[in-house]
Each structure stands twice: as C-alpha cells, then as structure tokens.
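Protocol step 6 of 9: fold each sequence in the batch and record its structure tokens directly after the sequence line. For illustration, a two-sequence batch is reproduced in full.

Sequence one:
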Amino acid sequence: MEARSYPADEAASLEDIRFRQAFASPYFYGAFSIADGSLIGFVNSTRCGTFEEESMSLHDPTGAILAIHSVCVDEKHRRRGIARSMLKQYATKITIMQKNNNNNAITQFVLIAKKHLVPFYESCSFVCDGLSAIVHGAELWYDLHRDVTTLPRTLMDSPVDVGSTRWLKLQTLTYLDSDSKENAWDRAIRTTKKSERGADAVAILATVDKDIICVKQFRPPINSMTIELPAGLIDAGEAPGLAAARELLEETNYVGKVEHVSNEVFLSPGLSNESVVIVRMSIEGKGVGEMESSEVGRGLEVVKLPCASLLRELDRLEKEDGIRSFGMLYTLAVGMEMGKITR
C-alpha cells in the first residue's frame, strides 16, 4: 500500500516500515474494513527532538515531536473521506495517550507534503510553515505542523468542601483547561457517594400491557408534581439489579425481573457527578405488601402511560395538570417518536 501511494523515490522501504512497527509501534495506526477486517489505510510516525532529514529515519522515544511519515489509503477506498477521518482519529488517539504522560510528552505533530496536498492537511488542523529544507525525492515539499492539544482534566485531589447538609455537599474543584490553565468549578455531590466511580441510583424502565410504568410524585426543589420512571438510591454494597427490584416493589408494588443493566450515565454533569444505571425489567406480578409510608407521604402514585403515545401524554400532563416530566423519561419519549420517523 505504501508503494502504491508514493513514487518509488519517496515511498518508505519495507525495512523502514518494519523499523517503525518494531520501535515506534504506539504510533502506528491502521484503518480496517468493517465488511471483512482487511487493512484499508494506515498512518505511521516516529518521535524526534528536531524535525530534519536525518531524524526521519530514526526514533527517539523521548522526542517531543511526532513526525508523521505515511498517510496511506488503499486505492479501492480513496475519495471517501477515509484519510481525513483516519488522520483526525490518529491525532485524537495520540492526544489521549498524552493525558497522563507528564514526562516526555509529545507537544507537536509535524509532516511534509507536496503543494497540492497542503489544503488537505490544513483541513485537518495543520498549519503550513512554508517550503521545507528536507529533500525527499525530486519534488519540493512543504512543512506543516499541528500542536498537540492537552485534554482538559480535573485535579481530583483538589475538591474543597464549601458546605454540607445531611444528604448534599457543595464542593469547588480545580481543573486544567486545554491550555493547562487552572480554573475553578463548583459541583454538588451526594454525601452517600463514596467514590467518583459507581452509580448513585437506579432508574427503572418496566412495561406492562404496552404501557410504561411511571410514578407521579411531589418534588420540593421545583415545587411541583413530576412524572418519572421509578428510581431510587443504591444501598452500600448492593448490586444495581437488586436495587432496581427493591425500588420497583417499594414504589409501585410490582415484582420485576431484571432484563438489562446499562452503563453508568450522568444526569446533569455540569452541576453534579450524580449518576444512575438504567435497569430494564419485565413484570412478573404484584407484591402482597403496601408501599412504604415515606413514598405515600410524597404523594407517590403509580401511573401507566401508553408506549405508543408517550410523548403526547407527557405534553398533555404538563399542559393540563402542570405535571413536570423527568428528563430521562422525556428523552425516551422523544427517541421513540424519532424511531417512528426513521423506521
């Protein structure tokens, strides 16, 4: 593929390719066909301290410059945007690799290109620095560079407690932006959350007779009744599936079987690290007890809404009764409507 992409006096030899694979393997990136898994393109690079002709055939593992040597796409797959997509993904991959690499980090991508390809690389966020002093084959080349953007990150040992109640805590965080500049951000967290990883709660998606089981209840923070999915906090050491079964029984008096547990998802990441897992359940019957008194005290009522017209029902409840919708439930309803359009 290299030989078919460049003239003979410019293409890397098989020995050059093997050298890069052996000594600079983290910087060798391939694009593969979804259909059959075959290689359809690749990017390879080596690191250097200064970008010059001699350094192009060497690899310095501590070099701050990543010199891109080849951006190749198989002839049958060209003019489909693969090279641009591959190069952008490559830059993102290298940037992510630098996230925790405080020593010997890569600070810049560099490459040389012929004049007609300069606009292509500029579309991938490279900057042209003019004619190159590097001689490679018979034609003139242009130097291009792209700075490695530092990914923003929170300094997790930085939270300062500002205030706290029994259930909630306000903290100020310090985070670094893409220019490594320190900034402050306030967040609310649950006092029951013991780790940055791990969901606080479960939200339960259960259906019966083509209806979604919901709960209506009063929410003091917004001074309104809401319509929501059944949900609740996960107890210490409790598996999400068990928490979902317990909460479903407590809030609705339905007995459910766990069908699927989602990854951890975040409800309002600009405000809080609160997270939930969505547990899909099938209904096996009704319980024999009563709802807990704390649930009754909040005016909790079980409401079944038709799957086929969920969005219309949520809008009606808001318009006619002033009942506000839980964001996750409303998003589900919008998604179901979009599914009808794109089906």
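Sequence two, same batch, same settings:
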Amino acid sequence: MITPLTALDPRTPRTVRNIRLAQDCGLPQYRVASICFLGLFMDLMADIKEAYELPPASIASLLVSNDFDRLRQKLDQVLDLLLSLSSIELNWSNLDKMYPSVSDLICVNLYHHASICTLHRPHLWLTGYCPLDSPHLRDNSAGITTILTALVQSLSSARSILEINSWIYHHQAYPLVFLPKLWKDYCSMVFALFEGCVVTWFCLTKTRSYWYTDDHTAATAATAATVAAENTSVLNLTLAHRRAFRVGLVDAVRTLRDLDYTSTRRDGIPNMVTPLYTYANAMLEEVQRVEEVLSSSGRGPVQDRGPIVRRRGREDSDVAGLVAGMDGLCLYDGQDGDTEREAWVFLSLLGCPVGVGAEEMYWRSANTHLWREFWNTMK
C-alpha cells in the first residue's frame, strides 16, 4: 500500500525510492509514493520564487536572511534521494518493466537539484557582482562562507542535473522512449534542466576567478572560511573541469533543441521550451568564448572527453513525427496576439544578462529591472 500524500509529514520525511525499482534492482523498499516528494519540491519552488520576487533592501540583508534560513530548513526536510543512474542496467529487454520506476527516479532527482539551484541563486550571483574586497565582505567570514556554500552546492547540483540529462540523452532509448515519452509525461522537468544550464553558465562565465582554488593569487582569502558542504572539489575549476561542464551543457542544449522542435505547434504558436532553448544556447556560446580566452591565455589546452554524439536535425522524419503528439506542451494560447508574456521558469535570471555588449539578452520578467538596479549598487 502506498502512503497517501496527506500521510507524508514534511517535517519528518523518509528516504524514498520507487518500490518497483527497489524490487527490480534489489534496493531497500520504502512505502512513500514519489508524487509525495514531487509535491513537496514544487511547493518549495513556489516559496522560493515568491521570496525572490523583489530584491532585498541591502547586501547585508541578503547575506543574513530569515527567508533563506526558512527555505533552507524546508529543503533539508526532504532527504536526498540520489542514486547513480549509471548503475541501472536499462536495455530493450527490460525497458517495459523498468521504465516507470526509472522515470520517477529521474524526475525526483532533477527536482531536488533544481531546488538547490534556485534556493542559492541570489547568493551565487554575489560571486559575480560582489568584489572580494567589498565592504560587505571585508572582515566578514560568515558572509564569505555563505557565498562559498552557495557556489559549491549550486555547482554540484548543476553538475548532477547535467549528468542525469547526459545519461538520458546518450541512452539508446532516447529517440524512441525518453524524448517522446519521458519529457512529455514529466514536461516540467525541462525547467529543472534549465536550472542546471543557468548555474553552469553563471559559474563558468560570471563568477570571479578568486572564488575558485585554482586562482592562486586571491583564492587564499576566499577559501580561508570553512565551507559547510560535503564536496568542495568543484572549487578546483581547472580548464579540464570547465571542458567537462561544457560537454554536459552541450547535451542539455541539444535536449532542449529536440524538445523545442517536437513541441512546436504546426500553427506556429511558440511553446514553453523555445525561450529556454534560446537562452541556454546563448549561454553555451558565452561559455565557449570564455573557455577559448582562458585556453589562449597561457593555461594550456585541455583534452576532450571524447566525441560529442551528433543528433538528427529538424528535417529528420523520426523527430518530425513527434510534433503532433507533444502539442500539449505549448505555453501560449495565441489569444490577443500575446506571444511576449513572461515565459514559464522556476526562477528568473534575477536581472543578470546573457551575453555581452550588443549581444546582451535579459529574461523577460516583471522584476528584472529591480534586480538589475540592485546589482548595480555594487559597482
């Protein structure tokens, strides 16, 4: 018997894995349905979006925030549900039996990591906007620890999101099962994937180098504070690590490209994936430009992790045949010619532009200009 949603107390959560997957893979069995945890994550995401609708009154109130502490406690109440997807042997012979369980596992993990990314967004933005010698951080080890924790946890979660997506994208079941079924049945997962893109892009292009331990000129001051995180290896961001992140970002952009095409309505009305793909693609271009600059600055070239799998383009029949079946993903209803409303997303970019100079793009949101003004106060 599956525990109903009303019986799951978010204050005393239990680790959960899908019962069918537990039976198939020999994992411990827990009797809490995945939908209960998905509901908790979505509820948390709504609270995060509301809390960050307006910028704080000051940097000090951002670094020490009751709202953030409350949201972090709520996130901590939902325990980590991580399980390495690479350990699951999924093939054509067991796909029918395993798919429902694996799809639940993928969705819960993506939502979990997306929650971490959105929760730490304003603090992560400080790694790009707030100089280390700022009066807000001078002699403020607690503030530095808060920012470093945001960097570590956000980048670690973004890496997990990209790794999960790459597992899906390169799996033999991607074109016939995962693309037409998984991303349609759990269509809101696309927003979690976008969160991974946003964090990866910002950390690789906007975060100042002294927050990473490979910058020996200034990193000592930043890393002197104790970081309350399990994994600090992401702070050692070498060119090889940047390349690995970029490979994952390429897979994410290609997934969004496929979803954008397969969810495009035949009457031309935009769909909810289009703005995500547009911005993620621009983020990838910016990441590539920064990597090229760093590679030519004397740090030396990096070795590729291997060839990137090429996917079929829009003109290919197996992709085109999925268009009609995914029309339900369309965001806009086409009424009154309104195709420029704010796009669906877990959390906006909080006033940070994608691209540089004449290529800058700002996420269309009611609070974009307010957050822009807030970040400009630190210049």
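Proceed to step 7 once all outputs are recorded. Observation for sequence two: The chain has a mean pLDDT of 75.
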